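One such shown below:
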Amino acid sequence: MLTAARSSIVWIALVLWADAVIVRGIHCGLTPALDEFFDRVSELANATVLAGIALAAWGASHVALAWPAAGRCSRFWEQTRRASLLMLLTLLTGGLATLALKHIVARARPFMLLEHGRYGLAAPFSGAPFNSFPSSHAFAAFAAAGVLACLRPAWRVPLLALAVAAALCRVLTLEHFPSDVLASACIAAWCVRFWAPRVQGAISNSRS
């Protein structure tokens, strides 16, 4: 609860005082070459691609575990099954929440502020460009980092750093405000925290 309260305070501060200032500052120093570079980096956190990889890994793990010859590698395939299932559930629930919030909140994209001076919300379900909050790419990046960190806690810091880099690129390309990616990180963290113990328990029960 304390973490959620702190995140809420930071988010409100960004929305009220920092988002517009940060976006205008980035706009002043952004070049076409940098914009293209940041955009390519951010595309690494594509929810569709991550879901496809997770689905393929989930299917492969079930096939491998069904073969008697998988005995020596059973631990690896069990971990793969757990990770892929956790990834799929996280991407599904968090992705639906992100999509719903995009349409309901209807926040203007940063370019609306830069080109038209419009900073704020439109009527719900207004569609693009009123779909800035939250960021789908940032959610996918933090979801992947959170799932992998559950399996490899020692990698938590570098995984989080990669997610932060991908999320920042969405801000640096002026696709999202900082508060958009912060909200996405919170959604990903909540989804991973909700599903991780349930997936672990389901797999443990299936082995017993």
In short: The helical segments are 2-29, 32-42, 47-66, 74-105, 110-116, 136-151, 156-172, 178-207. Residues 204-208 have pLDDT under 50 and may be disordered. Residues 199 and 205 are 10 Å apart (CA to CA).
